[in-house]
Structures are given as structure tokens and as C-alpha cells.
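Now for a chain:

_____
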Amino acid sequence: MESGFWLSFSSLGLNQLPFDPANNNEPLQFGSASGPLVTEGLIENGGESSKKRKRTNAPSADNSRTLNVDSTAMTLPMSDPTAWATAMNNLGMAPLGIAGQPILPDFDPALGMMTGIPPITPMMPGLGIVPPPIPPDMPVVKEIIHCKSCTLFPPNPNLPPPATRERPPGCKTVFVGGLPENGTEQIIVEVFEQCGEIIAIRKSKKNFCHIRFAEEYMVDKALYLSGYRIRLGSSTDKKDTGRLHVDFAQARDDLYEWECKQRMLAREERHRRRMEEERLRPPSPPPVVHYSDHECSIVAEKLKDDSKFSEAVQTLLTWIERGEVNRRSANNFYSMIQSANSHVRRLVNEKAAHEKDMEEAKEKFKQALSGILIQFEQIVAVYHSASKQKAWDHFTKAQRKNISVWCKQAEEIRNIHNDELMGIRREEEMEMSDDEIEETTERKETEESALVSQAEALKEENDSLRWQLDAYRNEVELLKQEQGKAHREDDPNKEQQLKLLQQALQGMQQHLLKVQEEYKRKEAELEKIKDDKLQVEKMLENLKEKESCASRLCTSSQDSDYPLEKTLNSCPVKSEREALLVGIISTFLHVHPFGASIEYICSYLHRLDNKICTSDVECLMSRLQHTFKQEMTGVGASLEKRWKFCGFEGLKLT
């Protein structure tokens, strides 16, 4: 604070110092233009002998750059704050109010400068209008500022900082209030031009003005002057003094420039993001070359190569879509299209090879699954044989429990694999039947579609001819109207043109009649083919009925040939449902050559239909003695009934 105050008297004016402070031992002088202002004596230094400095001020005609003090010499103790406060009150200045601290720091005559102050350099921040940054815990100490026409005295540092409004965005304009009544625009420029370049000043008659700076940071410098007391010259008149109040001001130009700047920053950000996205975006495919004879030969060679076929086809497609095909290049394009068509056979062969590989893989999987199923059957047979009494009695209780658990697990896994194998076989049978049905339907559809396409083509041709005929009629009507308007009946060209049009019209009518006759003939053929199709379907149904009747006659003849068997087994299969059950059970037992229990068979049937009863199934199987037979396996507690399929042996017996 002391160093700042000393600098305010020595260097914060607008004039440069006439001496080097670091090497000067002479007393400091102020306001040399208005007479000698001498400070004599030395300040107390430590515990040494006290010395006093005298200050004299000579009167001057120009009082704008000197303090208004008596012309007589005044002696003030430099380390006495009370004397300085009294002097400042006499000058109309607010006292600094720092008790117990000397206003000026100790001066060492041997060094020729004040102790505690670094050497003054042009780069020191204290020489500007804004002092260097002060730590936040220390109070801001402002200094006296001397201008040509006025002097600015700092406010009391103990007072709170002046209040300011919220800073508008992009603020470059300040409000300055508390100006002296006699203040002019030149004085305002003199005070505030040290903060930065001033663009415009708008002064009011009521002691305030608005100042617009070139940059935003200059507003902060101007706010530093808020609270200063301004005095014009050396006058103490009320009209020549005032207390400055600097605050942010809201201006439309500032807001517009700020919005423009924000939009510019947003554009730069969007551009940066776009560049980043383009940098991260995967590279685009190379452009397709333009058509030429040389490029055509290259693409034709690539079309013959299987590895480069895809690239060449894409190039060919692009050329055709661009419209490169013309009368001169048609042969080249036809040869390339022919080369592309030659790959169809290769693709079909590849598809067939892949399908063959898939069928082989399916067959291998089915064989492996069958082998696994056989091994499961063998393992289950081992468990069942171990469960027989002659071996079961020799195992301990824990061993028997483990064998039972293992047997149950093996049977469950075997059943799962068996179901999977049965599902594969069922799918194969369904695919075969679907293929047969699709072949027959495809034949019929192709025949019908060919006839329908012919009929549609004839219909389209008929429509186009009708439209052409209407167009010719309209032209004839227009020519007649023009001829009537022009009244040129004797014009041979018109008559000749009219005759030509009439001849063309007659030709079109004849052609239209021919097309209509052909269309009717094709429709009659289509109706005839549909009738033939219905007759063939009826004949097919009759043949099916005759075949069913013949099968019934065969069964009745067989029944008459074997009356004893009919009496013994009177209709073993009573319904179609029982016939389906016989077929499913036969298929199931054919996969299980070692037989299966009635519970196992019924568990399989329950997956197909939950309404099947075990007793009905057993009764049906017992009626068909030549198809199923029952065997007893096991001894003692492991005695079990198993059903086996014996249809092949029963066929020989019957």
C-alpha cells in the first residue's frame, strides 16, 4: 500500500519522469512547470536520528497540474498519518484511514531509492492505469491519477466496492455517472482513453454519459475507476467535482456483435465436428471409371475371372445405368452381358455342390446319431442286466441306488436322442411329399401362366392399337377443322394428306379387327383348356374312387378266402385312429429292436395325443398277434414285459 501510494505521486501521471529513480539522490520535485515544489529532509530510517522533509509550493498561473496548497512552505512529518489525513481533508480528499502506518516507506539515501520497492522498469504493471493483480485476502488500494485537465482521487479502501449490475453478454459499453457539471466530453475522453480505444461517447445533460469501447476487456479497466473523486484543475467548487460511478450498460450493438460472435463460434464448432466426422468416416469406395474401349476390354477380362467377377459386374451395371450403351458400343456391352450370363451355370453348380455338402452333412449327423442311440441302448441293456436278481443281490445299497439313477438318466437321454432322430426322419418324409406336390402344382401353374401371359400381351396390344386409332381420328378432325377455317378446299396438299390419313386409319381399323379376332380366339382356347383341366380333375377323382373300390373288393375277397381267420380275428382294426396308432407304434418299435415296455410306448404316444389310454393301446396290440408280440425279460423282481414288432415274420405266416 505504501509503495503504491508513493508511485501514485511519482509515476502514475501521464508525463514521464525526468530522472532515473534508481540512481537519483536529489530531492524529488513535482510540477516543475509551475515552480519549484521541493521536498527537503530525510525520512526516519529505523532507529537512527529522525529527519524531516520540507515541502514548499510556489504559486503558478496554471494550477491544473499542482495541488492547491498554501504558497508558504509547509513542513509535515512524513511518518505521521494524522498530519497527512488533515492535509487531505483540506484538499477535499477522503482520508485513507490507515492508522499506525507511514504514508511513505523508508528511504535509504545510500541506495537512492525506497526500501522494499523493486527497481522501476517500463514493463512493471504498476505503471499502467490498472495495477497488478492483488491477492484476494488483501484490500485493494487505489492510487491518485493525474491527468492534464483533472485529477482523480481514490476512494477509501475500507469502504465496500461499488455495486454493479449483472454484466450483459458481450458488454463493451459502460455507464459513467457522477460527472462534474462543468465536465466536457474532452475531459471524459482524457480520463477514459487510458482504458482503451473509445468508439463512441453519448453524453447527457444530467452529469452522466455512456462510453463504448473497442474490446470487452477495456470495460474492466473502466470499472476500476468507479468510486474515484474527480476534480477539474485545482478548483474545489462543487460544479468542478464529482464522484464517478462506472457500471455495465446494455447496448443493442454489443448484444448484436456478441450474437454474431457466438454464431461464428457455433459455425466453427460445427465445421470442426464435421471435419472430425469426415475423418472418422470410413473411406468411400473408389469411383467407377468412365466407359472407354480400353476399360471395356479390361472389364470383359475381369468378367471371365471368378475372383474379380463381382467388381466387374458392378462396373458394368454402373455403365448401363449411366447410359453408355449406344449404337457403337452395343456389341461390346452384349459380349460383356454374355460373359456375365456364363456365370449363371457356375453359380447353379456351386449351389448344387453346397446342397450336396449339406445333404452329406445331414446324413453323417443322422448316422452318428443312430450310432449314439445304439450305444445308449447297449448301456441301458447293461443297466437292466445288472438289475436282474442274480447280479442285483451282490451289490450294496449305495451301489444299487447309483445304478438305478444312472439307468434312469441313460433312458432319458436315449429317449431325447430317439425323438430327435424320429423328427429328422419325419422332416425328410415331409420334404419329399412337399417336393412331389410342388412339382405337380408348378407344372399346372406354368401352363396357366403361359396362357394368361399370352392373353395379357394381346390385351395390351389391343389397347395400344385402340389408342393409336383414337389419335388418328383426332388428327383427322383437327385437319377438317383447319380446312374449314382456312376455306381452302382446292388445296391439293390438304386433300392428299387427308387421303393418306384416311388410308392409315383404314389400315389401323383392319389391324385392330385382326387383333380382336385373335384375342377372341385365344380367349376361346383358354376357356377350352380350363374345361379340359376340369374334366381331367374329375377323371382323376373317378380313378381314385375306383381304386378305393378295388381295394375294398380285394379286402372282401381276402376275407372270403380266409373265413376262419375272420372269425378268430373279427376286424382287429376298427377305425382309422387305431390304424394310425398301429403305424406309429410299429415305427417306434422298429427303432427299438430290443423291444419296449407298454409304459415307454404310451409315454411316446402321450407326446402326440394326451387322450390315449394305456389299456386301449395294450388291447389293440394284443389283437394284432401277427404284428406285435409280447416277451417276458428279467428274473424275479426285475421281471418285465416287453413288446416287439414282428410284422415281417407275421407277413410270411399270413
User: Anything to note?
Assistant: The radius of gyration is 60 Å. Residues 1-19, 21-79, 94-130, 560-569 have pLDDT under 50 and may be disordered. Residues 445 and 465 are 30 Å apart (CA to CA).
